[in-house]
Here is the input.
Amino acid sequence: MKKFTVAILGCGGRGVVFAQNMVSKINEGKFEITTLCDPDRAQIDNIITMCPSVKPQIFLDVDEFFKEKRADIMVIAT
Here is the structure.
């Protein structure tokens, strides 16, 4: 089974809820959060703390984030 890569744009309330819901799927090997983007580094760090297995690329600038495809699935949680 293919492991899907996931990018989360917006790591505040909605992004956190999504990441929390993904934890069991990550542990099952179905998904991998590969990229997090938020202008507030503390929000990104919150998700990384909640999901210690996540080793994402980090973007504080949305323009840099959109310069290339980052994942199979993009969650817009802004």
In short: The longest strand covers residues 31-37. The chain is about 35% helix and 25% strand.
